[in-house]
């Protein structure tokens, strides 16, 4: 009835009166986003497909375009003004402000975030690194400068340019660490930077980013110092820091 020509669009005022008169059970946050989308197109109209996408929690290409165009006028307060949040939702809000540069993106992430799947990659890598370090520390009875122990250097995980034929070493060296200082520094950054990044961008992107940094580290050592062994996850940590730097700049 409201769209006799079957264009898929109706005026935003018509839609607002429809919501008010019929008391549609639409999430206020999603309604804000739909209005922002309408303000982002030339005619100021609400698109039916965008409404369907919002209801189904699908992030449409038109929504991304609305954000890119800078049309983010929201009738509600910013996300920081939300009150009565539990610990986990406050953490999600912190992640939104730490990783996403735009208030509209933050609001979208905050209301659409789900606990499943959890950010397991960075947690699993960090836990594995700690377990490997403890095992070698107990075995060698040495907790600092472990690379100076001859048995440590015989580990199948350590990377050395002379062992390039053993391809797994290009990555597995990230589980080995020189001592408590290196392990603690890497673990702290992986959890502080890696976990928020993984929560926003997902396990596939962050795992690829981290492993690419680890691989870049072993490849760099292969061409800069043919005699140097390589241990530690610093290459992956540098990749995470570089990715986070983009958020800081934006």
From TrEMBL:
The keyword Membrane applies. Belongs to the peptidase S54 family. Keywords: Membrane, Transmembrane, Transmembrane helix. Pfam families: Rhomboid. GO terms for cellular component: membrane. It catalyses: Cleaves type-1 transmembrane domains using a catalytic dyad composed of serine and histidine that are contributed by different transmembrane domains. Its EC number is 3.4.21.105. It comes from Fregetta grallaria (White-bellied storm-petrel). The lineage of its organism: Eukaryota, Metazoa, Chordata, Craniata, Vertebrata. It is an enzyme of class 3 (hydrolase). It comes from the Eukaryota. InterPro entries: EF-hand-dom_pair, Peptidase_S54_rhomboid_dom, Peptidase_S54_rhomboid_met, Rhomboid-like_sf, Rhomboid_IM_Serine_Proteases. The keyword Nucleus does not apply. The chain crosses the membrane at residues 120-138, 170-193, 199-221. Residues 166-248 form the Peptidase S54 rhomboid domain. Its main location: membrane. It is a multi-pass membrane protein. This is rhomboid protease.
């Amino acid at each position: 009835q409201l769209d006799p020509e079957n264009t898929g669009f109706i005026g935003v005022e018509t839609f607002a009166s429809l919501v008010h008169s019929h008391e549609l059970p639409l999430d206020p946050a999603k309604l804000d986003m739909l209005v922002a989308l309408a303000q982002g197109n030339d005619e100021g109209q609400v698109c039916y497909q965008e409404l369907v996408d919002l209801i189904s929690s699908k992030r449409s290409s038109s929504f991304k375009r609305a954000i890119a165009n800078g049309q983010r006028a929201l009738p509600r307060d910013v996300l920081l003004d939300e009150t009565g949040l539990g610990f986990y939702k406050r953490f999600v809000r912190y992640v939104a402000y730490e990783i996403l540069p735009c208030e509209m993106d933050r609001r979208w992430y905050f209301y659409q975030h789900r606990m499943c799947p959890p950010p397991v990659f960075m947690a699993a890598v960090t836990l594995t690194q700690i377990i490997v370090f403890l095992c070698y520390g107990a075995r060698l009875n040495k907790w600092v400068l472990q690379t100076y122990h001859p048995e440590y250097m015989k580990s199948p995980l350590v990377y050395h340019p002379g062992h390039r034929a053993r391809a797994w070493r290009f990555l597995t060296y990230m589980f080995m660490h020189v001592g408590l200082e290196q392990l603690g520094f890497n673990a702290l950054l992986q959890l502080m930077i890696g976990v928020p990044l993984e929560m926003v961008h997902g396990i596939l992107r962050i795992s690829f980013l981290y492993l690419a940094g680890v691989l870049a580290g072993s490849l760099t050592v292969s061409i800069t110092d043919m005699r140097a062994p390589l241990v530690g996850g610093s290459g992956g940590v540098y990749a995470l820091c570089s990715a986070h730097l983009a958020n800081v700049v934006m």
